[in-house]
Write a structure and sequence with these properties.
2 copies of one chain form a homodimer. Chain A contains 5 helices and 5 strands. By secondary structure, chain A is of the alpha+beta class. Strand 5 of chain A pairs antiparallel with strand 5 of chain B.
DNA sequence: ATTCTTGCAAATCATTTGCACTTTA
DNA sequence: TAAAGTGCAAATGATTTGCAAGAAT
């Protein structure tokens, strides 16, 4: 198993117990969880955990660039530790979010007048599972 | 000038005065305005306008499919009347949102397990204007 | 007359902030 | 002990909702 202590240090993030637990959770559960899901799950292990700490931690992770934030739906942010560029598909029926492989899309778009920092491709629809049932 | 009365009827939307004004504003100002911008601007012409009506109207427009909603940033929704598929670029410095032409991206992505309903491509960075100054 | 639209005020809910307490180097 | 991390409680702010009054056919 990867050393998340070192991983955090690499990003100039002090590796406190809570922070290690959060990044571990994100690395283990690549389900694009919300703050609340992460909080509820970690609460089982850390009964004193506060949601503010989860918010603080994730905000710091996003600022330092170790974690990506997805605004795929307006009313809840989701967090993603996957570093390989990919798109996201959200099923409108079951709410599940899937990773989608993408080719070199950036090179296909005329972006000569812009300096690109972030690239988000969100697709919404119905997943196979929900289509069959 | 286009008849927005007919345009709304085509989408089974009763063309009330307020609704015509909102769709007219979106058609004239393709700047992806927020609810608040639309409200503030229309208030100059319609002093009795309420923000709830703007919310109701835009919600209806999105449901009926005449207008697209952009969740490019978490804390404010933006609305778009442009019907030609395109991507959006947001400048992190000046906050401006630009339309970007896109080629046939959908055909390049493996989506055989999904039924696509919506397709959103958001790019963030710095625009030319902000880079030079 | 009935159905649809409008709009005020209150509610909601994810996220942020102020501040005091605790931990770490 | 100074700096950083944690967490409660309150604040914020965009959006939604309940409901009563007004407008359209």
């Amino acid at each position: 198993m990867k050393s998340f202590k070192k991983e955090l240090k690499k990003y100039c993030i002090y590796p406190s117990y809570h922070r290690i637990k959060v990044i571990e959770y994100l690395a283990k559960h690549k389900t694009h969880p919300t703050v609340d899901i992460i909080y509820q799950e970690l609460l089982k292990e850390i009964p004193t955990l506060s949601k503010t700490t989860v918010y603080n931690t994730l905000k710091l992770f996003v600022e330092k660039g170790i974690v990506l934030v997805l605004a795929i739906d307006k009313n809840e942010l989701r967090y993603d530790y996957n570093t390989i560029p990919h798109a996201h598909f959200k099923c409108e029926k079951c709410g599940g979010i899937y990773d989608i492989e993408i080719p070199e899309i950036e090179s296909l778009i005329r972006l000569k007048d812009f300096k690109v920092i972030e690239f988000h491709l969100y697709i919404k629809g119905i997943c196979k599972k929900c289509l069959t049932f």
